[in-house]
Amino acid sequence: MSIKVRYFASLKESVGRSEDELHVTDALAVHAVWQRLNPDFAMPDAVLAAVNMDYVALDALVTDGDVLAFFPPITGG
Amino acid sequence: MLIKLCEAVVDPWREIAAYQAGLTHLAGKFGATAVFVGSMRDFNQGDDVSSMFLEHYPGMTEKQLHYIVEQAQVQWPILDSLVIHRVGLVKPEDVLVVVAVWSAQRGDAFDASRFIMENLKSRAPFWKKEVLASGAERWVEKNTDGYQHQPG
């Protein structure tokens, strides 16, 4: 199973990458995906997460084929 | 309904006039058009700002804006709406966002346009990175409260 992970804006600069690909055997919670990919970088408190372009809670499950995005508070308008 | 992201400079009045000209089926039906235009300032948090880059999440931005407008349509009897947002490099005085709502009555147009604008500020994935007059760059960390000065 494969999960695509994307980072945006200041978070992309902080982690130093815009994308990751994670191979897993079972569905994983959003926060567990972060931990797996960024073991030395605690997830900032204000981070927002989206799965397949819909907002999700950090304990939501991510599964094969999903696109998970992490980003900082939004500042449009 | 039209939702549009624009890399080029936006003339809000031309956009609104052109869109309304296409609403021939609504001629004589709407009594109210509420318009919000947001522009870029040349200052923020005490510093002079010379330009700004608007990053967004392509696909999710449009999806969230569609949800927001659909929610407004459920809550108010609006006849049509137009949402335009700039992306990419913007300069002071440039228009950043346009929200226009057409309805039979003014209350629905006012309330729906405010709802769309406030939800855009909290749910549409855009991020601003400012370039200051000093040449320094910084991410805007959060949106300010647009209603700090409520009449007492």
Automatic annotation (TrEMBL), chain A:
GO terms for molecular function: nucleotide binding. Signal peptide: none annotated. GO terms for cellular component: molybdopterin adenylyltransferase complex. CDD domains: Ubl_MoaD (cd00754). GO terms for biological process: Mo-molybdopterin cofactor biosynthetic process. Keywords: Nucleotide-binding. Belongs to the MoaD family. This is Molybdopterin synthase sulfur carrier subunit. It comes from Methylomonas methanica (strain DSM 25384 / MC09). The lineage of its organism: Bacteria, Pseudomonadati, Pseudomonadota, Gammaproteobacteria, Methylococcales.
Automatic annotation (TrEMBL), chain B:
This is Molybdopterin synthase catalytic subunit. Pfam families: MoaE. Belongs to the MoaE family. It comes from the Bacteria. CDD domains: MoaE. Coiled coil: none annotated. Heterotetramer of 2 MoaD subunits and 2 MoaE subunits. Also stable as homodimer. The enzyme changes between these two forms during catalysis. InterPro entries: MoaE_sf (IPR036563), Mopterin_biosynth_MoaE (IPR003448). Its EC number is 2.8.1.12. Pathway: Cofactor biosynthesis; molybdopterin biosynthesis. GO terms for molecular function: molybdopterin synthase activity. Keywords: Molybdenum cofactor biosynthesis. GO terms for biological process: Mo-molybdopterin cofactor biosynthetic process. It catalyses: 2 [molybdopterin-synthase sulfur-carrier protein]-C-terminal-Gly-aminoethanethioate + cyclic pyranopterin phosphate + H2O = molybdopterin + 2 [molybdopterin-synthase sulfur-carrier protein]-C-terminal Gly-Gly + 2 H(+). It is an enzyme of class 2 (transferase).
